[in-house]
Write a structure and sequence with these properties.
Structural class: alpha/beta
Strand content: 5-15%
Radius of gyration: 20 Å
Order of helices and strands: HHEHHHEHEEEEHEHHH
Number of helices: 10
Shape: globular
Helix content: 40-55%
Number of strands: 7
Length: 327
Amino acid sequence: MLEKTQAVSLYQTMLTIRQFELRVSSCFAKGQVQGFVHLCAGQEATATGVCANLKPEDYISSTHRGHGHIIAKGADIKTMMAELFGREAGYCHGKGGSMHISDTKIGVLGANGIVGGGFNLAAGAALACKMKKKGSIVVCFFGDGSSNEGSWHEAMNIASVWKLPILFVCENNMYGISSRIDKAMAVENVSDRAAAYAMKREIADGNDVFAVHRTAREAAAYVRAGSGPMLLEYKTYRQRGHFEGEPEVYRSKEEIQEWLKKDPIQNCEKVLIQNGILTEQEIKTIKNQVAGIIDEAVEYAEKSPFPPVSAAVKDVYTDIVEEGRER
């Protein structure tokens, strides 16, 4: 068991992610958040446990379901919320939205709306880390569905051949959109495929933040030591649909209820109470504090201005054809 400060920090991070996601869901339903929104409610333990073992100079690549990864890596909640609201004060000045938040200052190379779009980005960053020899590593978060993309196999192969300092983290929530994993893969586990690349791998309970923290700590140390890449697979479950507003017809109510009993935050609370780390009253206080942080973020986003019309062509790289001249 971790010492109190670390254990409470993990709990607070998970709670921040959960409350952020639930508030985003509410704001989306009100029309305040535009575009597709993919929430990670239920998967908080993976992002939290892994990122708690990273240094400021380490990097992560994320996915379309990336709010949790970015928060766990240290992103500013207000700036994130402003981005989802499409405001100028957001990370991408309101033009990226939910799926494209990035902040290289804290090592977030970017969430990615393209399934499998982060693999080769992460491999390239890992190559840069190896060449600079500063001890930095890269964590590449991905879902089980994207492991069927060619880019995943390309990145796995080159990372293994060149012994890149990259930790592949699979959040196996059993579904690629609406396709259950056993309908899309012939092997039982995503990590079974690591053998094809002579890559070390491990499977753990993705709803147990302490198990995630322990396995990620060991894996990060392995990668940082120059031993080559590693694949961690965490079995978890998204508690909401693939995207907000989705008509869920492919998962049974019984299956969802069974996984709700394995809720990572509730499980963490039980462990903290049973080990005398926190009391129920202290947990209630932390929840209120986190709720206040989310309230402030929403208020900040609501009061922030939208980007001006002129921003539509800012940060866009394209050919400019002068009148009367051929391209």
